[in-house]
Design brief:
about 50% strand; globular; Double-stranded beta-helix; eleven-stranded antiparallel β-sheet
Length: about 220
């Protein structure tokens, strides 16, 4: 299997060449183009329970599995958001992925929901995240470019900038400074990571974009 990420960091896309019998699993709707000889199956990977867990993590219930029926068959994949992509190699390890960031993986990677606790809800990320574990390749996407941080000890990140992190890292949701800073600095809540592992963050965040665009919305006036 050969995989290449192109068009980064603004509109990244994934291009995979599969040898006969090789497989790739993607989110539904991620396929941009494919060799017509590729076999595609849509199913609830992991059964009903596994699908339900992925739904809790903000992903679709169904996934597409592409199987090559011959040598050098091409699969082109694109995420739903504009931004970058990253390939992560897993070797019997786990990575926690924020909702919406998962794009594709090789079949030996298990994708399921991970309970993040109430702290993730107050951090604006929902109560569940995705846990991707096993051995193989995982591809994730971001809003904006991806920046990888090798954490050794501690690192603090705005909650809206987190894309993924090694399961070896732990975190707490907290505020920057006191209450005055929380409401006036526009920094909001942050995740304070500790331990040793990799952390992937994105250079843009959706809530900040929504706040920037809000004054430009057309508001229909009532005639009453």
């Amino acid at each position: 299997m050969k995989a290449e990420i192109r068009n980064r960091p603004d509109y990244a896309s994934l291009h995979i060449e599969l040898d006969e019998g090789e497989q790739v699993v993607t989110e539904t709707g991620a396929m941009m183009g494919m060799d017509p000889a590729l076999k595609m199956d849509t199913n609830m990977k992991g059964g009903l329970l596994g699908a339900a867990k992925r739904a809790l993590g903000g992903e679709t219930v169904f996934q597409n599995t592409y199987t090559s029926t011959g040598p050098a068959q091409q699969l082109d994949v694109a995420p739903s958001i504009p931004g970058d992509m990253e390939e992560i190699e897993l070797a019997n390890t786990g990575v926690v992925v924020q909702r919406g960031a998962y794009v594709a993986c090789t079949p030996d990677i298990e994708v399921t929901a991970k309970w993040g606790g109430a702290k993730t809800f107050f951090g604006g990320e929902g109560l569940f995240m995705l846990k991707c574990s096993g051995t193989g390749k995982l591809w994730i996407a971001s809003f904006g470019a991806i920046h990888k941080v090798d954490v050794e000890g501690g690192y603090t990140v705005d909650t809206s900038h987190i894309v993924a992190f090694d399961e070896s890292l732990t975190f707490t949701v907290t505020k920057v400074g006191g209450l005055k800073s929380l409401f006036l600095s526009q920094e909001g809540l942050v995740c304070a990571f500790s331990g040793t592992g990799r952390l992937w963050i994105q250079t843009r965040n959706a809530p900040a974009l929504a706040s920037f665009l809000h004054p430009f919305r057309k508001v229909q006036k009532s005639n009453d």
